[in-house]
Amino acid sequence: MNIAELSKQFYELYDGPGQAPRLYFAPGRVNLIGEHTDYNGGFVLPCALQYGTWLMMRKRSDNLLQFASANFVGKAVYDPSPGYVKHQVSWINYPLGIFSQFDQLKVSLTGFDMLFSGDIPNSAGLSSSASIEMVTAYALASMLNVTSLGMIDLVKLAKRSENEFIGVNCGIMDMFAVGMGSADHAIFLNCLTLEYKRVPFILKGYTLVIANTNKQRVLADSKYNERVDECREAMDAIKAHIPVNLLGEIGFMQFFKIQEVIEDERVRRRARHVISENQRVLNAVSCLYKNDMLQFGALMNASHESLRDNYEVTGIELDTLVEEAQKINGVIGSRMTGAGFGGCTVSIVKDDIVEKFIHEVGDRYKLRTGLTASFYIAKVSDGVREISSESI
Ligand code: GLA
To answer: In sequence order, what are the beta bridge partners of 390?
Structure first.
């Protein structure tokens, strides 16, 4: 990202006297394992990426909110006086929802001029929306000096915004990874208690490669909410037999003893995924501590299989990318990452075959699906932060 270029654009959009803007950055995230477990109170193991969203922002003397993005033409002007409602320019609803949450907390707000710029591919399952939400929340708290809100409060606030303002019943994983990420570490998070541990994730001799299916996602939000409902349905059946509220609280053996109480076979498979995936996260964390990357990769493969067969959120494009990746000698694990229904895969690939991997998987994917995949080399990076003013 070219800061001088962003600054030039800022002054072109927002002229007039005013204080110098400040610059903030929030990363995207990739989830290594623990998919569709967060809203079930389970475990996840994501990490923050070097890709993300920059926000250049300056206070105004009135209460208008001005939104612009280096990725789109023009700007949107929003007057919050009548209250916060969704805007027709869909991307601005992500920062707008955050303003609405601050307003609900009775934080005294002013107007702002804002310029966003991002390099996370949209709708790829790498949390571009959580990145916009967290950069806005962090920048707002910082510029308004709201010291009562710590990082975990901002993470919870961003989740509420996504649930209430955007209308997606997501869990807390994305915001948590974006807020709490740390270079060379994965975050092992218990989504029920929010206890977490940063686990060293340094791939000696291996590279983390993300591959984007570039499949247009259709109805992904409604299919996601449908899975959330199916998990609730599974819980309704289980609750009558054991005193728990969420699938993530149920142990592997415990589930296998009582799974028949879920009458609907499809719903039972959804629960089976969540409970087995939860166990896989625990095993994956112990692999990291033992430096057993081969077993870690095998768990990634098993995770994909369960997401494909039990949870049914993969589809032909993700399955093809994963199948082709797993065929290559030197790939120790490959799986879909994020919500699914399109989006990206994540693979652990031996350093010296990364080029070959990109060519071969890309070619075979194109041949089988007609689509061109994009590849990114992931660098595990820090969470949301202010970029020092000297660099502006
Ligand atoms: C999306 C959601 C997350 C999580 C994943 C699936 O990224 O935003 O909360 O549920 O899907 O693991």
So the answer is: none
Q: Which atom of ligand 1 is nearest to the CA of 170?
A: 9
What is the tens place of the pLDDT at every residue in 191-229? 999 999 999 999 999 999 999 999 987 767 789 999 999
By residue range, what is the domain housing residue 97? 3-200+381-391
Residue 152 located in a structural domain:
yes
The verdict on residue 253 lying in a domain is: no
Alpha carbon nearest to ligand 1 atom 1, residue:
339
Q: How far apart are CA 123 and CA 215, in angstroms?
A: 9
Q: Which residues are catalytic?
A: 174
Kindly report the CATH number assigned to the domain that includes residue 103.
Answer: 3.30.230.10
Q: pLDDT tens digits for 247-280?
A: 999 998 999 999 999 999 999 999 999 999 999 9
Q: Are 303 and 333 in contact (CB under 8 A)?
A: no
Domain count along the chain: 1
Distance (Å, whole) CA 89 – CA 106: 26
- Ligand 1 in reach of 174 Cβ (< 6 A): yes
Are 60 and 112 in contact by the 8 Å Cβ rule? The answer is yes
Question: Strands 196-200 and 185-190, how do they pair?
Answer: antiparallel
